[in-house]
Protein: VOC family protein
Amino acid sequence: MVFEHFALNVTNIGQVVDWYCQNLGLTIVSEQKVAPFMTFLADSTGRVVLELYGRDDAPKRNFETEHPLTFHVAFVSEDAQADKQRLVEQGASFFEEVHKPDGSHLVMLHDPWGMPLQLCQRAIKF
Structure:
């Protein structure tokens, strides 16, 4: 089996998709223009990683009430400090950062809608 995607039901689907494309370099590979606006996003490798949609007939997670270690979307960063600053300037909010003994730098943010977002600058890439 090969991983295809992870899906989330979100509020403000159009704004969320735009923000992730503009600020994290994701690209739309498939998009439904009518409700529930299923949108598949790919990373810079071209692999689909995330499906976002806005269904009012299904629950949406309240990320504000959950700890980011319960769920988060993580991205590789070559410079976690600079990316943290850039994303905060674009509406993300800072939660915490960890400098691991191996030299890795992990930054936890919330996107403008509260979804936990992690930046992973790993000393040993995997």
Q: What stands out?
A: The CA atoms of residues 8 and 36 lie 12 Å apart. The chain has a mean pLDDT of 96.
